[in-house]
Amino acid sequence: VQLVQSGYELRNPGASVKVSCKASGYTFTRYYINWVQQAPRQGLEWMGHIDPEDGRTQYAQKFQGRVTFTIDTSTSTAYVELSSLKSEDTAVYYCAILPLVWGQGTLVIVSS
Questions:
Q1: Strands 57-59 vs 67-72: parallel, antiparallel or unpaired
Q2: What integer pLDDT is reported at residue 94 of this predicted model?
Q3: Per-residue model confidence (pLDDT) at position 76
Q4: What is the pLDDT of residues 31-70, one digit of tens each?
Q5: CB under 8 A, 24+ apart: contacts of 68-76
Q6: Is 52 exposed, middle or buried, given 0-12, 13-18 or 19+ CB atoms closer than 10 A?
Q7: Phi, psi at residue 39, to the nearest 5°?
Q8: Which of 9, 16, 48, 80 has the fewest CB atoms lying closer than 10 Å?
């Protein structure tokens, strides 16, 4: 079972970014894909999850409104899109099948 994420992203404040997470080694629709944020010098913060079977989502309150989870079952890929980026969104973003399987993380830097 493996989750492989897209690479480093640099964005200006106000822009959007979309991070991908490609799953392999298992039936994609079997497990929720979770997204977790780790800001500099901060702990891990759960952002929410998506059910690949039906696309239903759940967002942590902090991220509701500016974060969107989507999936493409044809490619076994999950996505997280963050809009209206702020410097505080600078972080490593992980996809995960909690608790044991994690992507390698994607660093997103928001800076002008």
A1: unpaired
A2: 98
A3: 98
A4: 999 999 999 999 999 999 999 999 999 999 999 999 999 9
A5: 69/33, 69/35, 71/33, 73/28, 73/29, 75/22, 76/22, 76/23, 76/24, 76/28
A6: buried
A7: -80, 160
A8: 16
pLDDT for 58 equals: 98
Find tokens 């989750």 and name the residue.
Answer: 3
- Residues in CB range of 103: below 8 A, 6 or more apart: 3, 4, 5, 21, 94, 95, 96
Residue 102 confidence (pLDDT): 98
**Secondary structure percentages of the chain, helix, strand, coil, to 5:** 10, 50, 40
Between CA 63 and CA 23 the distance in angstroms is 23
Block residue for tokens 């894909």: 33
